[in-house]
Amino acid sequence: MIGLPGDPQTTNWPYGSMPVPPAPRRRRRWPWVAGAVALVLVLGAVAVPLYQRLTRPTPTEQVQSALASLEHAAVIRLTGESVTMDGMPQRVTLSLAGKRAYGQVRGSAGSADVLVRHGVTYLRGDRAWWRGADETAALYLSGHWTAQTSGLSLDPTKLTQTGLAKYLGKGLRANADPDAHAKPAGAGYPSVLGSTAVTPYRLPNGSVVFVTANAPYRLAGIDRAPGAADGGYLDLTVATADKDSFASGFAKLAAGVHGDPKTPAHYDYHDKPKQGTCDPYSCTESVRLGADGGDTSRKGHVVGFFSSDEAGKHIVGTCSAKLPKMQPNHFARVSCTTRSQSWRRWTASGASTHYWVWILPLDPGYVGDHPNQVINVFTAGVDATDMDPDDIVLESEDALGVTDHLIAAGAWKGRAAVDAVHAICDAGALGVLEPLIMAGQVQLDQDSFGDWFNDEHLSAAVAAKEHAAAGSTKLALGSWQDPDDRTVKADLIDISAKTTVTTGRVTTTRRTRGDIEQAADRARKGTMPAGFGRQLRIVAGPGSALYWSSASGVAAALRAAGVTPAMLHGIRHIRVVTGFGTATLTPNQLRK
Questions:
Q1: Could you tell me the pTM of the whole model?
Q2: Cα separation of 329 and 339, whole Å?
Q3: What's the gap between Cα 397 and its chain centre?
Q4: Does a cis peptide bond (omega within 30 degrees of 0) precede residue 361?
């Protein structure tokens, strides 16, 4: 049957014979989409970096942008290290706002607060700071603000934002002259300071600056900054700081600055000793003293020595007497009487009736009030003719105390003790070694220390301080007699830890390999007791790219400098101190 239009009936076709129209064909578009995405990614990977390279400011422009940002910063914070010509390091932390600044400087022994206002630098050092910086001032300057900046190895007045920007920008020009451009500093310098990605550039003036790797460009570090004193070296990191915090911190310190403390008086005699009453039991001599214009309120003494020979080698009597009360720039007479057993024995012997006498006034503001210590020192083998009032032992309470301790506790001869303390003071190491010696933690060789120790061995004294802080209770500097009576020589012998320590310093990037190799050669020459190991302690000074390495990057920096395990054969550990940490490595860790 055939249905008509509108008729609900339909034609009955045999099953399976009804024609089926074809399904609509779907267009396959995904290959084109994927290709387009891939093309975009490829173009992005190539074009974007290319565009960035083409539009990125030149190194000179990056540095100039960073210097402009530095100059306009309200407050900056500088941290780093300064080193004098003789290798004395100091850690520096300063906050600056224009011509005002405050912070702290920490030396190998002590520390000092620093304040700059009205173009004047003020210092407030602790006792350990002044022991190392100016032994004669330690007693009266400790803990007081002063315009005396002894020992400070930088001039903070040169570290203003404007001063830094002008110094670093000198000769830097974005012109056709390549000598006026900032240039990549080289692979020896790290690309990360702390957690900040940086790019190191060398400037026309010789400094290396670390500029943040991405815009906006900021100054993150300065290698060879201005402000180092006496031809030294200064490396600094740079960051911005809070203006309100600076104002409160500066005001707190500035409130304590009231000018220098009054300088103590120096005493001197103005005529020869005058004999008084002498008999077999006692003898009195007097001398006329004068005080200069300093503070005469401190207590003090004169000390006298009676000798049976003109050279003062044979002391037959001693005495002490209190300084008379006198006004500055005035004079007074003081008498000193010996009643010592040595005087009685000498007069009873009838050997002679002639004697010589020396009367020394002690300056209580400098050497304190310790006449018995002076007598102990100069009756232990020091000729009286050598007792110059300008001797450091008679000018510094701390130097006198160490000298007396060596004689009393170590049974040193007076001359050897005096020479040893002179060497310590000349090297600026009194602040480091005084507490170690007085506590009996470090031993000095009486026969050789005075001739061996000098400013080159300050790092050995600092290493002794570090080992003592780590728990070592028995240390020796220079040499030590082992249980088999062999003389062990090294910069430092840590007897507690069974380690000999040889110290060295990396002075420049070019000298990294040579300096370390030279220190290793010195270490291997020393006698090694059974059970002991050798350690190198290397300090990376400003002026070397190694200084900028973090503790985790030291091994890579040493490898890059050409230091190999073979160069360190026989060395158990190498300890490297940088400006950003300390790393202790074994030679095997330097294998590539």
A1: 0.84
A2: 32
A3: 24
A4: no
